[in-house]
Structures are given as C-alpha cells and as structure tokens.
Amino acid sequence: MKVLFLVLILFTCVPEFCHAFSIQQGIDFVLSLAQNKPVQQAFDLILSLTQNKLSLLENSKFVQQLFDKFKSEYQRTYLNKQEQQQRLEQFKETLKSLILAKVQDLTFQLKLNEFSDWTIDELQTLRGYVPHNDSDRDAPIDKPQPILVDHRRRSSLSRRRLSLSRRASSLPASFDWTGRVLTSNSAVTVTRPIKNQGQCGSCYAFATVAVLETVFTLQYPASYDLSEQQIVDCSKAYGNYGCGGGFFEKSFDYLKANAWNLDSSSSYPYTANDYSSCKAKNSGVRFAKLAYGIITFGDEAAMKSYLYNYGPLWISFDASNPYFNSYASSVYSVSNCGTLESQTNHAMVIVGYGTDSSTGLDYWKVKNSWGKSWGEQGFIRVRRGVNMCGIAARAYYIGLATS
C-alpha cells in the first residue's frame, strides 16, 4: 500500500495543493528504487510520475540528489565548492531543457550525458570548424576518382580509376559504411570505432582522419587507427588553429605536403591539446596519391552517390542548438539552426543514410567525435533532404588523384 500511495502522490500531486514533504517522500522512494540505475533512468521515472514537471526544478533537494547521482556515474570531481555550485546550476539548466523538450513534438530524444554540467564556453570548445572566408573557397584542381568497391561482396577490389558508377536513382534505399568488413579478411572493418576529441576544438582533425582511415582500408585491405594529434600539431603551419579549430583543406594540404604519410595513433597519441610542435615520425601508413572534391551546395542526392561510391563524407554542421549537446536517439530535426556554410561550426562524417521506420523521416547517419556515451553510441541521425543545420553546405569526398 505504501508503494501505491507514494506513486499516486507523484502522479496526481500539484505543489499548490499537496504538502511538500509528501512529494519529497515519493521522490526519495523512487530514487531508492533506481539506486543502481543510470541517472537518466531515474530522471525519466520521476518525470513519468509527475504532473507539474517544471516544479521539480524548484525542489533543491531533488536537484541535488540527481546531481549527486550524476557526479557518481560520470566520476566528477570539482576544484572547490564554488565550481561545484556553478556545475550544479549548469546541470539544473540541462534538466530544464530536457523537461521542456518533453512537451514539444520533437522527432528525437534527449538524455543526460557527460556534457550535462558543461558551461556554454566549454561546449563551444568542442565545435572546431572554422567557416571559410573568400580566399579559402578555391575549388580543387584535380577531380578525384573513386576506389572500385563491390558493395555486394563488401570488399575493395582494386585501385583502378573509374567514373562515378551509381547515381542516386539506382542506389539502395539505405546504406551504412559502419560495421562493413572486407571479404578477404572479415576481421578488417571499413570504418574505425567512435573516438573522443575531449575538450579541444579538433573535430576537423577527427573528421579528416575518420575519412582517411576508410580510404586507406579501401586502398589496401588493412585497418589502422591513425593519428588525429598529428593533424592538430602539424597542420597549424598550413592554416589550421590546433584546438582552436580548422578546415578540411588545410588538413589535406598538410597530408599532401607530408608525402601522404600519417602516423598511427599509438606512435603519435592524442593529447587533446595543441601545446606541442609537429613530431611526425612518418612511420605509420602512406596513402596512394589522393585528391578531394566538394559537393555542390545543398545537393543531397549527389551526396548519396558520393557516399556510396567514394566512402564517408566530411561535412560541416551547425551544432549550436542546445538540444544537440543532449541528443540521445532518433532523427535530429530542429528549426532554429543555420543552413549556410558560414553558420556551421562543427565537423563530422556522414557514414550512411536511410529512412526511420517510426517517424518516416529520411536521415543521414553521422559519426561524431564526442565518445560513445553521446547520441546513438557516438552517432547521430540527421534529417536528410532539407539541408538540416547546414549538413549539405560544405561536404567533401576523397578519392584517387588523376594526375
């Protein structure tokens, strides 16, 4: 009877008519039930049993209890009480954002994650794509050719140059590079696992390396974990800004100048800072001569073809919407984000496409570099066909050079 009574309180109680102690008693009970559950599950359970959800934020004990659970789950330690209070306030703002999202007709879900106590300035450091100015908009001279891939057999057949083989009209309804293996060696995956850039605006380097890792596997049937730190350190001389952000072109210019050599991440490990000068050993892999292309602004049909025929695409994206930080699952679609390349601020990699069975929305499957705890195991599905948040504003593909 006590269980039913406390649950009933949470279901029906409105602060104006119920005693605060009764509400807190119910919250304490639910949190005790969720003691060994993730903080998100505890939060969802309490939200589902509460009518006036925003009133929970006025309950300082509840917010503190949830924050303590969050700190334990994400192993947080703070420098002093002042920082802890600041983090608590930021965590409370995240809770408010998630509660408000519950009453909106969103096509995607949100969740608490490792960024739920980060400040706006800290979140900004993750977005390291620098929009181009006019002097950076030169088109590539050498149009690349794709590596011949037999998708039915899931293998790289040769490095023979060929024209774009399949147009958008003849492509499969869905496609995904992740998890694909080589027929010649089923232990070799075409893409590498999700990585984490940490508190450094090196998304441009992670996106560049993610594309290059697949390109190398398609060139030579072998898979290597390549060095993002080498791009961060060594491409500064070519116009990138280390942890302050960068471009695809400048990263590619460095790779070309370095005779297409890139070290492994084990020999040139990631440090999430840009304090060091270039320490490339050139002891990792060497690519065949490469070239890149830029897909016409907004042409998402062409993006499908290039994705299928060349491999993952490097894209810029406007990740300014707070919902992006807390994205959990389903198809990301928002109205208040930029669609021009000049409005984008984050670099990621498109690895697939499809149609969501629940919402009916077409989507791009996109690989982020914020770790596996973010999104769908590190990925996000972004609405396709509407240039969502500038995803089709600046898309690059890499192939074999023709000269």
UniProtKB/TrEMBL annotation:
<keyword id="KW-0378">Hydrolase</keyword>
<keyword id="KW-0645">Protease</keyword>
<dbReference type="InterPro" id="IPR000169">
    <property type="entry name" value="Pept_cys_AS"/>
</dbReference>
<protein>
    <submittedName>
        <fullName>Uncharacterized protein</fullName>
    </submittedName>
</protein>
<keyword id="KW-1015">Disulfide bond</keyword>
<dbReference type="GO" id="GO:0006508">
    <property type="term" value="P:proteolysis"/>
</dbReference>
<comment type="similarity">
    <text>Belongs to the peptidase C1 family.</text>
</comment>
<dbReference type="InterPro" id="IPR038765">
    <property type="entry name" value="Papain-like_cys_pep_sf"/>
</dbReference>
<keyword id="KW-0732">Signal</keyword>
<keyword id="KW-0788">Thiol protease</keyword>
<dbReference type="InterPro" id="IPR013201">
    <property type="entry name" value="Prot_inhib_I29"/>
</dbReference>
<dbReference type="GO" id="GO:0008234">
    <property type="term" value="F:cysteine-type peptidase activity"/>
</dbReference>
<feature type="coiled-coil region">
    <location>
        <begin position="74"/>
        <end position="101"/>
    </location>
</feature>
<dbReference type="Pfam" id="PF08246">
    <property type="entry name" value="Inhibitor_I29"/>
</dbReference>
<feature type="domain" description="Peptidase C1A papain C-terminal">
    <location>
        <begin position="171"/>
        <end position="399"/>
    </location>
</feature>
<feature type="domain" description="Cathepsin propeptide inhibitor">
    <location>
        <begin position="67"/>
        <end position="123"/>
    </location>
</feature>
<feature type="signal peptide">
    <location>
        <begin position="1"/>
        <end position="20"/>
    </location>
</feature>
<keyword id="KW-0865">Zymogen</keyword>
<dbReference type="Pfam" id="PF00112">
    <property type="entry name" value="Peptidase_C1"/>
</dbReference>
<dbReference type="InterPro" id="IPR013128">
    <property type="entry name" value="Peptidase_C1A"/>
</dbReference>
<dbReference type="InterPro" id="IPR039417">
    <property type="entry name" value="Peptidase_C1A_papain-like"/>
</dbReference>
<dbReference type="InterPro" id="IPR000668">
    <property type="entry name" value="Peptidase_C1A_C"/>
</dbReference>
<dbReference type="InterPro" id="IPR025660">
    <property type="entry name" value="Pept_his_AS"/>
</dbReference>
<keyword id="KW-0175">Coiled coil</keyword>
